[in-house]
Amino acid sequence: MIMLRALLFANGFGLLIGLLIIFMDKVINNYGEVAITINHDKEIRGDGGKTLLRILFESKYFIPSACGGKGTCGYCKLKVVEGGGTALPTEALMLTRSEIREQYRLACQLKVKENLQVEIPPEYLEIQEYEGMFSLSEQITEDIKRVRMQLITPETISYKPGQYVQVRIPTDDGFDFRAYSMSSNPDEQNEIELNIKLIPAGIGSSYLHAKQVGDPVEFSGPYGDFYLKTHSDREIICVAGGVGLAPLKSIVAYWVSHNLSRPIYLFYGARSLKDLYNHDYFTGIAETKPQFHYFPALSDPAPDWDGTTGFIHTVLDRELSTGIHGEAYLCGPPIMIDAVMAVLESKGIPKESILYDKF
Ligand SMILES: Cc1cc2nc3c(=O)[nH]c(=O)nc-3n(C[C@H](O)[C@H](O)[C@H](O)COP(=O)(O)OP(=O)(O)OC[C@H]3O[C@@H](n4cnc5c(N)ncnc54)[C@H](O)[C@@H]3O)c2cc1C
Ligand code: FES
Question: Quick check: pTM over 0.85?
Answer without folding.
Answer: yes
